[in-house]
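Long-time lurker, finally posting.

We've been working with DUF538 family protein (Quillaja saponaria) and I want a structural starting point before designing mutants. I don't trust myself to interpret raw outputs, so I'm hoping someone here can both generate the structure tokens and explain anything notable. Sequence follows.
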Amino acid sequence: MTSFVPKAYQLVSFQKRSNPTPSLKMVYLEVFLNGPCLTKFENRVFFESVIKANLTYGRLVGVEGLTQEELFVWLPVKGIVVNDPTSGVILFDIGLAYKQFSLSLFEDPPECTPQDVLRNHVRKERGFEAILR
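Top reply, 14 upvotes:
Generated this for you. Predicted structure of DUF538 family protein:
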């Protein structure tokens, strides 16, 4: 099973939503984590305590609570797309562009380092420390 959600989640909530396009079925998704945390796929990814998105076939749109480091800059992930599951590619919409990852990176839920541990051990990385405040 493919998952971008860290192992340490408490609850996943699904709720049907009305959609202006009736042919496109959409579900509101909320994932509650034990707390904010950091993981790494190819780049570092920061999860807030709650991740929200609208779920439809092959995509998450309107993602909130997820940011990705790209060239020393932290950018919000606005969507996650799998256009063709047989392609082996997953796309993160970071607003300016789509970041392409191998789908195999998401076969197992990632381990995620809690925010408390990061504050105590990653002080020298000022760019990321600013996001934690």
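Before you design anything, note these points.
DSSP finds two helices and ten strands in the chain.
Residues 61 and 79 are 5 Å apart (CA to CA).
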